[in-house]
From TrEMBL:
A GO BP annotation: cilium assembly
Name under which the protein is recorded: Intraflagellar transport protein 80 homolog
WD repeat residues: 112-144, 194-226
Keyword annotations from UniProtKB, A to Z: Cell projection, Cilium, Cytoplasm, Cytoskeleton, Repeat, WD repeat
Main location: cytoplasm
Record-linked PANTHER family: INTRAFLAGELLAR TRANSPORT PROTEIN 80 HOMOLOG, OUTER SEGMENT 5
Domain IFT80 second beta-propeller residue range list: 310-598
Compartments (UniProt record): Cytoplasm, Cytoskeleton, Cilium axoneme; Cytoplasm, Cytoskeleton, Cilium basal body
Subunit: Component of the IFT complex B, at least composed of IFT20, IFT22, IFT25, IFT27, IFT46, IFT52, TRAF3IP1/IFT54, IFT57, IFT74, IFT80, IFT81, and IFT88. Interacts with IFT88. Interacts with IFT57 and IFT70B.
Length: 757
């Protein structure tokens, strides 16, 4: 990936002296109204409009000679839940202590005396209902949309150079000398501040999608932080101070500006491309609405434009590159065949997976099959700017500012799920997951909640209630294969613990089980339900995560582990396709790992009920991990004959004996109940026995598990075997030299003779 930059031969922002001497004035700020229209402000007191479609530049308004603009920010397009086609007004801060609310046509609607000294930055919150300004006087102020002062949030002893809103618009990030400070709008809430740079911090930005913070300073470094103030990345010192930094809208990229320098970086900090344009210092960077291009305000009077090109997508033997804004190149690495895909409009987003390439342009969506690149399926988009594409084997998801849309690969709209307070503008691959039958979305309003939908109907799954965890959730992922009623979701919470649970629940207590700790990143396999993750400096593959519901003691034996210390800090799993895992290190380099192909083959045999082939495979491989997986799979599928062979192979003799005892049980219901007991599903086993009329066995199950109260409750309710329960209880107490203290048992024991021989 790289930037394709363009500069005019002569700058548009110039001052004429005595009608013939030209002087280039620095451009202080830029801002996009649409993906093809930009406004720029300069020390020449002019606001210019740039139309990228017609290459025309026109003057919008000439400001008074004593007004020197410093910062510009357009009112967000989403206001009060209503989406506008383009921004209609912007705030302009200036050196005279004022900020100005200016319409798109250049009319100054209002000028407000805001600070003593220059107003150094102004930013609208995400829905355009509040404005934050900072100035040379060290004050941070919050204003209403109409320019009325709401509060003075902070008073610093030094000038505040930059400000940014938190993703929920309830916190404000600002600079104070070498420190960064996050202050909530609510009073009496803890303020977070930390030393961020060795020099003055000039710029900061906070992305609402990935919740990460950028900072840039006079120490010639840029840094990436999480919202708790933990350092994720620090650049090497540059030659000159970093004068501008800005996130792209979707949080996948950011741009860095310095003297004669423009750099494109990944969200984790490493650099994709470095350009050295003749611009002077770049004082301000703004990304277009669709994230395909950016503009920079230059110290020599120029406005620099840069398009993101040469993005790459890989899947199996196909490599696709965006070589121009409207052209993609497809390379089949097996036969070296090359195809060119031409589009009418510029490409905004693309995804390659499951044998299909899905491309969204500014107006349309194209669906290509990897078997035929010549005849794509094309349909018009409701909303122009797609922010996310997710694929499953049978369908794909488009996310835009208007909602979530699930389409089949034939272009048919399947559903458009919704939930209260849904904000689609902040969704990313960590907060949304898609499988063949299920869509999971993490709630932003309450980060402990995951909404789960049927992919085809768009309705909530199970009993309609969302999945709720005890701690904030960071990342979610649905498994990709298997039956709908066995669908599992894995998620990492903010403590970095990995949990797994079933997505389908009907009034039952949700069983969320922890299977990993200190997990940084995770991914499900595309063809089998294998799960991989990096936990505590170890790369781990859970060959059969469902083991935790079948035989928890067996889980540790179904893992593959490898030392991950050479992956460096904060590695991310990119793909888990077939038996190959692709991991991106913190420096941007890719590592390809191969795991054994046998677990995937074992999954295929089991899903086809080829138990004899599965046993034969395990005997051939002679790996205890494979036998452990087969044992868990066999119990999950109620094939106790195979389970007996597998448990015997790994030396679990006690479980072999228990399975043998199950075989000798007289009724089918009894055998099924004891298989459920084997898996730890006590409640389901008891329910099954009661439905079959096997009251005594249900009571005996609770006695064996020392569930004395439940055993007595069943005996009294069904008026049978009360004396049996009392006898077992009495024997139990005698063995431990205890006396009965349970009132219920004392009441029932009155008048009941207990013949215990």
């Amino acid at each position: 990936m790289r930037l394709k930059t363009s500069l005019l031969k002569e700058p548009k922002h110039i001052l004429f002296f005595l009608n013939y001497i030209k002087h280039k004035e620095l451009v202080s700020c830029v801002g996009w109204t649409t993906a093809d229209e930009l406004y720029s402000c300069s020390d020449d007191h002019q606001i210019m409009r740039w139309n990228l479609l017609t290459s025309e530049t026109t003057r919008v308004v000439k400001l008074p000679d004593d007004t020197y603009p410093i910062d510009l920010h357009w009112l967000p397009r989403s206001i009060g839940g209503k989406k506008q086609a383009h921004a209609e007004s912007f705030v302009l801060t200036s050196s005279d202590g004022k900020f100005h609310l200016i319409s798109k046509l250049g009319r100054v609607e209002k000028s407000v005396e805001a600070h003593c000294g220059a107003v150094l930055a102004g930013r609208w919150n995400s829905d355009g209902t509040a404005l934050a300004t900072v100035g040379e006087d060290g004050q941070v102020k919050i204003w209403s949309k109409s320019g009325m002062l709401r509060s003075t949030l902070a008073q610093q002893g030094t000038p505040v150079y930059s400000v940014a809103w938190g993703p929920d618009s309830e916190k404000v990030l600002y600079t104070s000398g070498k420190q960064l400070i996050i202050k909530p709008l609510q009073p009496n809430v803890k303020v977070l501040q930390w030393n961020a740079h060795d020099g003055l911090i000039l710029k900061t930005d906070w992305n609402s999608v990935n919740d990460l913070i950028l900072s840039a300073g006079e120490d010639c470094k840029y840094k990436v932080w999480d919202s708790y103030g933990h350092l994720l990345y620090s650049s090497q010192p540059h030659e000159y101070p970093i004068t501008s930094i800005a996130w792209s809208g979707d949080g996948g990229l950011f741009a860095v500006g310095s003297f004669h320098t423009l750099r494109l970086c990944d969200k984790s900090g490493w650099s994709y491309a470095l350009e050295k344009p003749n611009t002077g210092s770049i004082f301000n960077i703004a990304w277009s609405v669709d994230g395909t291009q950016l503009a920079g305000a230059c110290g020599n009077g120029h406005v620099i434009f840069a398009h993101v090109v040469e993005q790459r997508w890989e899947w199996k033997n196909f490599e696709i590159t965006l070589i121009k804004r409207r052209t993609m190149q497809v390379h089949n690495v097996i036969n070296d065949a090359v195809d060119l895909l031409e589009f009418r409009d510029r490409v905004i987003k693309a995804s390659l997976n499951y044998g299909h390439l899905v491309v969204s342009t500014s107006l349309q969506c194209y669906v290509f099959s990897t078997n035929n690149w010549n005849t794509p399926l094309i349909f018009d988009l409701k909303e122009g700017t797609v922010t996310l594409i997710l694929q499953a084997e049978r369908h794909f998801l488009l996310v835009d500012g208007g909602g979530l849309y699930l389409y089949s690969y034939e272009g048919r709209l399947l559903s458009s799920p919704k939930f209260p307070g849904m904000r689609t503008d902040i969704l990313n691959t960590q907060t949304v997951s898609l499988s063949n039958d299920t869509l999971a979305v993490k709630d932003k309003a309450d980060e402990k909640v995951i909404y789960i939908f049927d992919a085809v109907s768009g309705k909530p799954l199970g009993d309609g209630k969302p999945l709720t965890h005890k701690t904030d959730i960071v990342e979610i992922a649905l498994d990709q294969k298997g039956l709908t009623n066995e669908r599992k979701i894995a998620f990492i919470d903010k403590n970095r613990d990995l949990y797994i649970t079933s997505v389908k629940r009907f009034g039952k207590e949700q069983k969320i089980v922890k299977i990993g700790t200190m997990v940084q990143t995770l991914a499900w396999n595309d063809t089998s339900n294998l799960l991989c993750g990096i936990q505590d400096a170890r790369f781990t593959v859970w060959y059969y995560p469902n083991t935790v519901y079948v035989d928890k003691d067996l889980l540790a034996k179904t893992l593959y582990e490898k030392d991950a210390s050479d992956f460096s800090k904060n590695p991310q799993i990119v793909h888990f396709v077939g038996n190959q895992i692709t991991i991106r290190k913190a420096d941007g380099s890719l590592i390809h790992l191969n795991i054994s192909p046998y677990p995937v083959i074992l999954h295929e045999y089991v899903s086809s009920s080829k138990w004899e082939d599965a046993v034969r495979l395990c005997r051939f491989v002679k790996d205890p991990t494979m036998w452990a997986c087969l044992a868990a799979m066999a119990v999950a599928n109620k094939d106790m004959a195979t389970a007996e062979i597998a448990y015997a192979a790994i030396g679990e003799i006690d479980k072999v004996q228990y399975i043998n005892s199950i075989k000798d049980l007289p009724s089918k219901e009894s055998r099924m109940a004891h298989i459920l007991l084997f898996s730890g599903n006590t409640q389901e086993a008891e329910t099954l026995l009661l439905q079959a009329g096997l009251i005594y066995q249900a009571i005996q199950v609770n006695i064996d598990l020392y569930n004395w109260n439940r055993a007595l409750e069943l005996a009294v309710k069904h008026k049978t075997h009360v004396d049996t329960v009392l006898a077992y209880r009495q024997k139990f107490l005698e063995d431990f030299g205890k006396k009965e203290t349970n009132k219920r048992f004392l009441e029932c024991a009155e008048g009941v003779s207990i013949p215990w021989n």
